[in-house]
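Service request form, structural biology core

Requester: graduate student, group of Dr. S.
Request type: structure prediction, single chain
Budget code: on file
Notes: please return the result as structure tokens.

Sequence provided:
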Amino acid sequence: MRTRLFGGISAAALLSLAPGVASAQASTTDLEARVRQLEEALAAVRAELAASRAAPPPVIQIPQAAPAPAAAPAPADGFRIGPHVVKYGGWVKLDALATDYRDGDLANSDLGRDFLLPGTIPVGGAGDRDVHFNARQTRLWFTTDGVVAGHKVGTRVEMDFQTLPGAGDQRTTSPSNLSLRRAYITVDNWLFGQEWSTFQNTAVLPETADYIGPTAGTIFVRQAQVRYTRGPFAIALENPETTITPFRGGARILADDSVMPDVAAKFELKRPFGDLALAGLVRQLAVDEGVIDADTTGWGVSLSGKLKVGSRDDLRFMVTHGEGIGRYVGLNLVNDAVVTADGDLEAVPLTAGFASFRHVWAEGLRSNLMYGLQRVDNPVSLTGTAVNKSSESIHFNIIWSPVRGLDVGAEIMRADRELESGVSGEIRRLQAFAKYTF
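Core staff response, request fulfilled:
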């Protein structure tokens, strides 16, 4: 007999269904677990997505090309070639000279007709007069300045026409030679080439119609050299050359026999009241001519300055003394040394100087009054009496600049030369000029 339960379903039937129900319950539990895992994974993805949206976007570094170097600015003056600034300039000058030679005359080709050359002032002869025009002081120059491999490098070349070819023919084309004045290289503090002697101070030369002015009283030399400058101090090794008077006089000996360069040094002091310079020179004087083979030492000192007088005027001066420095002073008015009776050399002492006062009358109008002098202490027993004893000159000019770069003016000058014998000569000159500087 079978037992019926739950509305006709037997216990046996229920028992037969129990394993299936248990299996279904197990499957439902696994499903629920997997759903929970999926929900947890989805929640993690959502959280990561929300965090990524809240963070700033990443910055991507893109390599940039190196900036092109800036072009060098155009120079205010001149023009640029590579790393160098090139400049050029000069002037054109006409001189008209009327000269009264009181005690002689000069040859047509003599440079003393163009400017004051103390050693050529005629002495002991009949006087003469002439009028002479020339444009030989016309000057040209160009310079370069730049930086090369971290060093400041520059050059200068300067020329004029103040030389004469051959006899200086003035009948037709009045030719003149283009002559080198200055040509040098500068590298930082160094200078190599032809330049004004370090013994000279060109800054104090007066403004004059003449080529130099108070020539007898000033140092005036351009020559090849190697110079080092640091601040106010400069020192140089310069080309040696000795000019010698034979024993008891005679034609000048030009002796190129020195084995040591001339050593020149200068110290400059700049102050509100003006500029001062102290220069020194030591040199070997040497000659090896035939039976004469000798040498001695020459030396010199020079003090020069340019001092302000009021707001626009100035006083310029130079005083020089030494032995064996004749070719450096007054365009070689006196020789450096003289040959002694036994064939040695004796240096010749000299003292020279000039003073110049510049006065500005009005804008563009000024005058210069200048005086130059040289005195020589010749050992007359060796030199004889036909050598130069002294020379002096006095000048006065008035110069007007009606437009920028143009100067016109006139100058009167008197100069003389005296020999140890007492014979002397004098010249008087009126010089007019027009000069345009570009």
